[in-house]
Amino acid sequence: MSGQCTPDLLWMLTRANNAFLVKRDSGRTQFCKEQFNLTNTNSFKTSGIANGQGADLQPIDNGAVLTIKSSKGKFKPAQLCKATKMARGADMFDKDFAKVAKCVKNTVGGYYRPDLSKAALARWTKLHRSIKKTKKLAAAGDAAKGKK
Questions:
Q1: Which of 13, 36, 108, 112 has a 20 to 30 Å separation from 82 between CA atoms?
Q2: Are the C-beta atoms of 73 and 80 separated by less than 8 Å?
Q3: Would you say 45 and 37 are in contact if contact means Cβ atoms under 8 Å apart?
């Protein structure tokens, strides 16, 4: 994000060519790997580069990290992002799905970017399922090796 130009101009310059763009099916389908893009689609609404505000969910061991990009910190890169770690012990992770979903909904959808609340909740659901599956696979692998 640049403080010297409008988001519309920045989107016009980066929509066809940027380092995060992934084109499939001869360029008809376009995905984007940039940070603060919850749906990973190449569109102005979800672009983390062009928009001044954005939200991102990344997985960690026992939960996720919700990162918020603020337009207030565009001249202070250290204050541009605020991260909230949403994790607890491994035994509490299955019970905390609703609490984390409520936190994501209130943070992203409540006052920050209401248009991205559904995308953020969908991303949290997929992250929760993937972390849950890896834990089951790890537990099954440990049981097969004879560990507790």
A1: 13
A2: yes
A3: no
Tell me the three-class secondary structure of the chain, residue by residue. Answer: CCCCCCHHHHHHHHCCCCCCEEEECCCCEEEECCCCCCCCECCCCCCCCCCCCEEEEEEECCEEEEEEECHHHCCCHHHCEEEEEEECCCCCCCCCHHHHHHHHHHHHHHHHCHHHHHHHHHHHHHHHHHHHHHHHHHHHHHHHHCCC
Distances (CA, A) of 1 to 35, 48, 70, 76: 12, 8, 11, 12
- pTM for this one? 0.75
Mind listing the pLDDT tens digit for each residue in 72-127?
767 787 888 888 887 665 555 566 788 888 888 888 887 788 888 898 899 988 88
